[in-house]
TrEMBL record:
NCBIfam families: IV_pilin_GFxxxE, typeII_sec_gspH. The gene is gspH. This is Type II secretion system minor pseudopilin GspH. It holds the Pfam family N_methyl. It comes from Pseudomonas shahriarae. Gene3D superfamilies: minor pseudopilin epsh domain. InterPro entries: N_methyl_site (IPR012902), Pilin-like (IPR045584), TypeII_GspH (IPR049875).
Length: 149
């Protein structure tokens, strides 16, 4: 009687386990470039929503601007000397170097949160090497985020 020379069930399971391990590592490696960018944008979106709520409930003028290296929140100060925009302390992590908005460096905020809502609807796009995200603020301080190819 001749024996069939095929693979055993155990050998097939070992091969499938190795292929699954390599594919999981490959997916994790390919997504690692976008993870810090998406985390930074998620944290910034959360802070922007809280700034909008603070402006509405505390009756303050707050804004978001780009300083060339990172986004920063500013507050309108009246009092000592001439009125102007003062940088609010940030509790965020370091900003990823490759993440840039489509708006220029400015001393004035591009997004202004007021007690009655947003000063004007704003749309901006965040760019990095592997992707883009579009942010659109509506007049009622709602933020809509769309991931672009």
């Amino acid at each position: 009687m001749q024996r069939s020379r095929g693979f055993s069930l155990l050998e097939m399971l070992v091969v499938l386990l190795i292929v699954g391990l390599f594919s999981a590592l490959g997916v994790a490696y390919l997504d690692a470039g976008q993870a810090p960018m998406r985390q930074a944008l998620a944290q910034l979106a959360s802070e922007a929503r809280s700034q909008a709520a603070q402006a509405r409930h505390a009756g303050q003028l707050l804004g978001l601007r780009w300083n060339g290296r990172s986004p920063e929140f500013v507050r309108w100060q009246v009092g000592r000397g001439a009125p102007g925009w003062q940088v609010a302390p940030s509790r965020g992590a370091p900003w990823p170097a490759g993440l840039q908005p489509d708006w220029p460096v400015s001393r004035e905020p591009q997004v202004m949160f007021t007690p009655s809502g947003l000063a004007r609807p704003v749309s901006l796009t965040w760019r990095w090497a592997e992707g883009r995200q579009r942010w659109q603020w509506q007049a009622d301080n709602t933020l809509h985020i769309a991931t672009l190819p």
